[in-house]
């Protein structure tokens, strides 16, 4: 039976054997193109006719187009390890990826708005169904919080799309920002598992980092609470008492970083990129606390610290590490990836410190970072594993 399964797996084209391959490759290309198009639209160089205008498109596509694609690629691949059952591959994976791609393209075609909405919600719905089927069958209760966060993300997407349909800018904004902070929760959940493990392995440390389940649960609860406050509209106005959950988040993220830190981290690009990306979660939380306390003039800077620094930085670092491991390669990224990691973080710094005046330079840094990943990693993702494993 095992031999038969191996033969069946090897009969599938390498690109469609596991979820990380198509979603990482396409997600990186989409990150490059979407930010370039957004920057061009802001500077009046182009104005595509999309439903609700380019702001509505940008709000929706960064969390639900880019962010969700990489989350899907990572989780659909991790399912194989977590549950011991084969990950989504072959035709079912092609169909799910095709749905994601159609949902990205439909914005630019004159189709009924209802079709756009159906395609967006169909992708996340089928993705959650696949995750739930495997996790529940394997009784993986420790991973049920991931299903919770994904379900809340689907709810936020429904808010955002309802705002688009009804022309309600506030509802769009609430849904998109709540989704962004739920992605922060997902980054915290996944990062809490893989960053200490990758750090331990990357530095040859024998003993594992101590687990802190209470801290992990508190981060989950506090992160979901913050997202709920955005969805309800409370976080859209500065209120001093709302600084409290963000201060708590800052402390918890800071504790994690302190516990994970080892001196050798800063000599290994695959590690310092992860730690630096996670540090942007701390910066974003502190920024929101500062805004609620009246120390920061606008929350956009904190939200972009989260979107560009944390989401972009952690996604780029995670893709670089996971792609090497799951294609059977040594954990030594191409030298250009150090530049990619540096440019991504430089772009985040420019975006939050220079505001809109530095948007072009920040967008350029982001685009070059993801272009470097796509150039160096696409051949790995298209080809079979170098160790002969069918994954």
Automatic annotation (TrEMBL):
Keyword Transmembrane set for record: yes
Superkingdom, taxonomy of origin: Bacteria
Presence of the UniProt keyword Transmembrane helix in the record: yes
Transmembrane spans: 20-42, 62-79, 113-132, 144-166, 178-198, 218-234, 240-258, 270-293, 305-324, 336-354, 360-378
Keywords: Membrane, Transmembrane, Transmembrane helix
InterPro entries reported in the protein's UniProt record: NnrS
Protein name as it appears in the record: NnrS family protein
Species for this entry: Pseudomonas sediminis
Lineage of the species this protein comes from: Bacteria, Pseudomonadati, Pseudomonadota, Gammaproteobacteria, Pseudomonadales
């Amino acid at each position: 039976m095992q031999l038969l399964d191996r033969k069946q797996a090897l009969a599938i084209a390498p690109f469609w054997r596991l979820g990380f391959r198509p979603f990482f490759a396409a997600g990186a290309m989409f990150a490059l193109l979407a930010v370039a198009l957004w920057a061009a639209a802001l500077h009046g160089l182009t104005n595509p006719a999309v439903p609700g205008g380019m702001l509505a498109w940008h709000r929706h596509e960064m969390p639900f187009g880019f962010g969700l694609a990489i989350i899907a690629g990572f989780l659909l691949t991790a399912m194989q390890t977590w549950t011991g059952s084969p990950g989504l591959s072959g035709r079912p994976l092609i169909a799910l990826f095709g749905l994601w791609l159609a949902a990205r393209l439909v914005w630019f075609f004159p189709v009924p708005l209802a079709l756009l909405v159906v395609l967006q919600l169909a992708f996340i719905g089928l993705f959650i169904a696949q995750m739930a089927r495997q996790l529940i069958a394997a009784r993986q209760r420790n991973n049920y919080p991931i299903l919770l966060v994904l379900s809340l993300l689907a709810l936020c997407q429904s808010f955002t799309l309802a705002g688009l349909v009804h022309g309600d800018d506030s509802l769009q904004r609430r849904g998109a920002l709540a989704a962004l902070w739920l992605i922060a929760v997902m980054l915290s959940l996944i990062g809490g598992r893989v960053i200490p493990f990758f750090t331990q392995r990357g530095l040859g440390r024998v003993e594992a980092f101590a687990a802190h389940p209470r801290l992990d649960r508190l981060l989950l609860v506090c992160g979901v609470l913050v997202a709920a406050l955005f969805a309800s509209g409370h976080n859209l106005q500065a209120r001093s008492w709302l600084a409290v959950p963000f201060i708590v988040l800052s402390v918890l993220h800071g504790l994690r970083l302190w516990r994970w830190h080892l001196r050798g981290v800063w000599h290994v690009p695959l590690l310092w990129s992860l730690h630096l990306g996670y540090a942007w979660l701390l910066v974003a939380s502190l920024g929101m606390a500062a805004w609620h306390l009246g120390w920061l003039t606008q929350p956009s800077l904190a939200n972009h610290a989260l979107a560009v620094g944390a989401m972009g930085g952690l996604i780029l670092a995670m893709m670089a590490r996971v792609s090497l491991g799951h294609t059977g390669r040594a954990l030594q990224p191409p030298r250009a990836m150090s530049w990619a990691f540096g440019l991504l973080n430089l772009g985040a710094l420019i975006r939050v410190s220079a505001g809109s005046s530095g948007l072009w330079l920040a967008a350029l840094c982001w685009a070059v970072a993801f272009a470097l990943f796509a150039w160096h990693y696409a051949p790995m993702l298209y080809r079979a594993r170098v160790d002969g494993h069918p994954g």
